[in-house]
Amino acid sequence: MSVADDIKKNSADTFGTKWTVRDGQVVPDASDLKLTNDAVSFDKATVLYADLDQSTDLVETKKWQFSGEVYKTFLYAASRLIRNHRGKIVSYDGDRVMGIFVSKSQRNDAVSCALKINYAVKNYVQAEKEKHWTGDYKIRHVIGIDTSEIRAARTGVRGDNDLVWIGPAANLAAKLTSLSADKATWITKRVYDGLNDPQKLDSQEKNIWRQWEWNEHKDEEIYSSTYWRKFT
Q: For residues 20 and 154, is the Cβ–Cβ distance under 8 A?
C-alpha cells in the first residue's frame, strides 16, 4: 500500500468510525489509548503552559552552550514543580512544557505551581546562571493557565505517537503565553473564580491579580500577576 493509500485509509477510518469514550480519573499515558477513535474524558482539567520568553533571540545571539543551559534549567524547574503540585507533564515543545492537573483542587494546584515557578526562575535559576556566565541576560518566562472539559486521544503513526488534548483549555493556556512576560502568570476568569485566598491574596491580604480584557480572544476577562511564592 502506498503512502497516499495509507493516508486515504486513515482519513476514511477516522471520519467514519464512532468514538469510544470513557471517563478519566488520572491523566493517561499514550499506551492507555488505542490509535483508533478512542478517548478519555475529563469533565474538568486544568492546563498549565510554561514558556521561556524570547527564546528565538536567545539562540540567535548567545552561545549554544549558554542557550542549552538556560533551556535545561528553566524546563527542569518548571517540570519539577508541576510534578510537585500533583500535575502530570504531558509534552515538551522546544522551550515550553505542558502540565495537566485533574485533582479536586486542580486550579489552586496549578496556580500555586506557577507562583513557585516564578520564584524559582528569578531566585534559583537566575542566581546560578550569574555564578557561571557573565553578562546581564535575564531569564524571563510566561505561564498560561486555563480550565475546561478536556478529552485525550492518541495520534500519530504506529511506533511514533503521543496524546493530543482536545478542549479549550489546552489551546487557550498556550495562547496566554504569547502575552507580556512582564507579568509572569496569566490565567482565565474560569481559573480565577476557583482560587482560594492563598492563591489570590498576598501577606497583606491584597489581591495579587490584575484584571484585563483579552483583545486577541473575544475580549475575554483574564488576569495577570507578577507575584511569586517563596519555597525552599
A: no
> In this structure, what C-alpha cell is assigned to residue 72?
535545561
pLDDT in tens, 214-223: 999 999 999 9
Res 135 pLDDT > 90: no
What the chain holds in terms of domains, given with CATH numbers, is 19-225 (3.30.70.1230)
Q: Are 40 and 152 in contact (CB under 8 A)?
A: yes
Using an 8 Å Cβ cutoff, are 110 and 176 in contact? no
Placement of cell 512544557 in the chain: 97
With beta carbons less than 8 A apart as the criterion, state whether 106 and 99 touch.
no
pTM reported for the whole predicted model: 0.95
The answer to whether residue 94 scores a pLDDT higher than 90 is no
Round to whole Å and give the CA distance between 183 and 96. 17
16 HSE (CA, 13 A, CB side): 6
| Residue range 177-185: mean pLDDT, rounded | 97
Spatial distance between the Cα atoms of 194 and 201, rounded to a whole number of angstroms: 13
**All three cell numbers of 35:** 490509535
